[in-house]
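Have a close read of the entry that follows and walk me through the local backbone shapes. See right below:
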Amino acid sequence: MLAKLHTFSLLGIDALPVEVEVDVSAGALPKTVLVGLPEQAVKESTHRIERAMVNSGFVRPQDRVVINLAPAEMPKSAGSFDLPIAVGILAGSGQFKSELLDRYAIVGELALDGSTRPVKGALSMAMAAAATNRLRGIIVPSANAGEAAVVEEIDVIAVNSLAQTVAFLAGELEIEPTPSRLNELFQELSHYDEDFADVRGQEMAKRAVTIAAAGSHNLLMVGPLVPGRPCWPSGCRRSCRCYRPRSRSRRLGSTARWGAYQRVSRC
């Protein structure tokens, strides 16, 4: 039986669509074949997935399982393919049926007990899912839900385990989409307790910061912390008050870059 799911692969800071195809057919000996240019972390996922399924109360198929990650020429890395592959194996082996597989993208890493772990680039994947105009939402680990919910155009479904994901897709469990806190977060993070006007002296450095802020340019400050520059660590933070508020698209782009390196705080 063939099952198809939607997911995304992180390439740099961009999320690219990937189709997960899982075919479970009778074979003389149980065997799992993973194709589609998977890198080492993805190749090792089959062992995690098998134990996660068994420890979640499902049955490991004793058949030939072929998993294809399309497009074949694009490298696939990271552990975000664990959850979609596991769901595909369960659907392909007939352990549950769902009409939602075409409407939701699925990303997430699995622990051996079947619980989900956070992945890199959840915001980039949510933005890519919204850009397809074909998906209703995206299923992500609970730890990534706040980050992904910044994208208001799609539903973000937070799951804690493989069993919970299957129950949602099978219609046995209702999970409300994670609400977006975009405007609230922007207002909260746009207020600063420190003021750039508190910096005394250092006229040339302050002029460089002012020019960079006026043109929305990047600024790199180098040099050791010596007695003549004691306030510049906090001065860099104070310089945020000089910059004009950025547009929504630019803020999302900056946050997506940080999310690709797992430096976004879990909301």
The radius of gyration is 23 Å. DSSP finds ten helices and nine strands in the chain. Residues 37 and 167 are 30 Å apart (CA to CA). The mean pLDDT is 84.
